[in-house]
Amino acid sequence: MKKHFTFVLLLSAFALILAACGGGGSSTTINVTMTDFHFEPMEFTVPAGEEITVNAVNNGAVEHEFVIFKLGTDAGEKFGDEDEENIYWEVEVMPGQSVTTTFTAPTEPGEYYVTCGIEGHLEAGMNAKLTVVAGD
Ligand SMILES: [Cu+2]
User: Fold this and answer.
1) Which of 85, 86, 135 is nearest to 114 (CA)?
2) How far from 129 is each of 6, 41, 46, 71, 76, CA to CA, in Å?
3) CB-facing half-sphere around the CA of 34: CA atoms within 13 A
4) Which phi and psi angles does 83 have, rounded to 5°?
5) Residue 61, exposed/middle/buried by CB under 10 A (0-12, 13-18, 19+)?
6) Please, are residues 104 and 69 in contact by the beta-carbon 8 Å criterion?
7) What whole-number distance in Å separates Cα of residue 37 and Cα of residue 7?
8) Residue 97 C-alpha to ligand 1 middle, in angstroms?
9) CA 25 to centroid of ligand 1, rounded, Å
10) Domain 25-133 adopts which CATH fold?
């Protein structure tokens, strides 16, 4: 009897750990911290076509952006005017500020390129990846 109880406890603990890690699943919330010059975390997974809440915090000393590109496009080696047409969605956050906003995730599953559109920030390492997965 005691053994069985321990086993159930272990299973519950395992399930909790899986839930805490997200189990590799998608989330309708993106929590991102921007610094000079980095996104933390650098990978996000969201369900296709859902409304996504973005909580973006800029802990840096300069303005930053979270720019999602259309599927199959990226900014190349630097962000320029020619990249504007490839932007799917973006938000800007002033230094020391935080912004909560929403956008609708793309309906097409895939890996979407994310960068900061402020000059020089892409080159400094501000890029990330948004993975869109098919919903239920
Ligand atoms: Cu930036």
Assistant:
1) 86
2) 40, 9, 11, 11, 14
3) 34
4) -85, -15
5) exposed
6) no
7) 46
8) 13
9) 27
10) Immunoglobulin-like (2.60.40)
Longest dimension (CA), the chain: 69
Segment 10-29, tens digit of pLDDT: 555 555 544 444 445 899 99
- Residues by chain with Cβ below 5 Å of ion ligand 1: 64, 116, 118, 121, 126
End-to-end CA distance of the chain: 39
Number of other residues whose CB lies within 10 A of the CB of residue 60: 20
- Closest of 129, 116, 122 to residue 77, by C-alpha: 122
> Helices (DSSP H) in 1-45: which residue ranges?
2-21
User: Quick check: 60 and 95 in contact, CB under 8 A?
Assistant: yes
Residue matched to tokens 């300069």: 62
User: How confident is the model over 102-107, as a mean pLDDT?
Assistant: 98
- What's residue 47's pLDDT? 97
CA of 117 from ligand 1 middle (Å) equals: 7
